[in-house]
Amino acid sequence: MSVDVAIRQVERADLLAVVRIERACFSDPWPHDAFERLLDEPAFLVAVRDGAVVGYIVADRTPNHGRDIGHIKDLAVHPDARGEGIGRTLLRSGLARLRATGVAVVRLEVRESNDPARSLYADEGFEPIRRVGGYYRDGEDALVLIVDLAEWADGDAAETS
């Protein structure tokens, strides 16, 4: 599937579009200042098509005794642009960026009921490690998923060869 978007590092000027997508996608959206605080993260990326931001990923890294851990905090694609592979492209770009900064393992939380996201993450090698009861404001549980980036990169290389 060919995706007609450019992936690049977020810029301050993109934040309004990011917040608008956040509000369109989530029942409990992050405020503008939450994104502003993450501007310098190495894997805060946007997908741009025809000059407009259509999706984003926000991930950070935490040093951990030489085995840095990445955390995907947020990933969203505008509802009008879903089903085109943009989320997968953002996820892969974010994982590659984290790996390039020395991250070994990446984790994330996903709503238990979010089947499309869970399917995407499973396709990319994420595995559930635990459930967190009542994680979301509405009381829904989250699943914590992890992926080993060395294994992910090996799988990705095998897929493209």
Keywords:
single chain; 161 residues; alpha+beta; Aminopeptidase; seven-stranded mixed β-sheet; 7 strands; 33% helix; ribosomal protein; acyltransferase; GNAT_dom; transferase; ribonucleoprotein
The radius of gyration is 15 Å
At the first level of CATH, the class is Alpha Beta
**Could you spell the SSE succession in H and E letters?**
EHHEEEHEHEEH
Q: What structural class should be given to the helix and strand makeup?
A: alpha+beta
Count every beta strand, where a strand is a DSSP E run of 2 or more residues.
7
Principal-axis shape equals globular
Q: Quick check: average pLDDT?
A: 91
Number of helices: 5
Distance between the termini: 16 Å
What profile does the largest beta sheet have?
7 strands, mixed
The tally of domains stands at 1
Tell me the CATH architecture.
Answer: 3-Layer(aba) Sandwich
Spatial strand order of the main sheet = 1-2-3-4-5-7-6
How helix-rich are the residues, as a percent range? 25-40%
Any idea of the CATH topology? Aminopeptidase
Percent in strands: 25-35%
Unreliably modeled segments: none
**CATH superfamily annotation:** Gcn5-related N-acetyltransferase (GNAT)
